[in-house]
């Protein structure tokens, strides 16, 4: 990792919520230098009861100088968010089917 000097804009910024929602988090960590803690991200922390690291603001202020521990915190937080989203989707997909008695099943098949 490091700063990309080929582009005219050296300092690229992105919303932290976009990182949480991303399918490729490593692309975000390598492309952007800073994340902004937007209102969507704050709401997501509250809604999914995620505990953010105390030093999150310091970590996202300059991602390129983060060490392994800080990057691990970001990826762990994203993983917890993705897991919470997945847990919300599962009950919607699996609706309990009504169990019919054998007589009701036969009657249903005949009609």
Q: How would you characterize the overall build of this protein?
A:
The protein has helices at residues 16-21, 25-31, 39-47, 56-61, 68-93, 102-110, and strands at 13-15, 34-36. The protein is mainly alpha-helical. The chain has one domain. A two-stranded parallel sheet has the order 1-2. The chain starts with 12 loop residues before the first strand and ends with a helix. The mean pLDDT is 84.
Concise account of the structure shown:
With 111 residues, the protein is mostly helical. 57% of the residues lie in helices and 5% in strands. It has one domain.
Compile the SSE list and pairings.
Elements: E1 13-15, H1 16-21, H2 25-31, E2 34-36, H3 39-47, H4 56-61, H5 68-93, H6 102-110
Parallel strand pairs: 1-2
Which labels suit this protein?
5% strand, 111 residues, 57% helix, 2 strands, two-stranded parallel ribbon, mainly alpha
Amino-to-carboxy terminus distance: 66 Å
Largest sheet: 2 strands, parallel
| Residues in helices, as a percent range | 55-70%
Tell me the fraction of residues in β-strands, as a range. 5-15%
Described by the principal axes of the CA atoms, the overall outline is: elongated
Rg calc: 22 Å
Low-confidence stretches: none
Structural class: mainly alpha
Spatial order of the strands in the main sheet? 1-2
Total domain modules:
1
Average residue-wise pLDDT: 84
* DSSP strand tally: 2
């Amino acid at each position: 990792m490091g700063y990309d000097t080929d582009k005219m804009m050296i300092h690229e910024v992105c919303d932290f919520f976009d990182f949480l929602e991303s399918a490729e988090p490593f692309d975000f960590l390598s492309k952007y230098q800073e994340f902004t803690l937007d209102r969507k991200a704050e709401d997501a922390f509250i809604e999914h009861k995620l505990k953010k690291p105390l030093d999150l603001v310091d970590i996202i202020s300059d991602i390129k100088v983060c060490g392994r521990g800080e990057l691990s915190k970001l990826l762990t937080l994203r993983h917890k968010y993705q897991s919470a989203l997945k847990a919300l989707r599962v009950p919607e997909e699996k609706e309990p089917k009504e169990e019919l008695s054998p007589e009701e099943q036969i009657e249903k098949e005949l009609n």
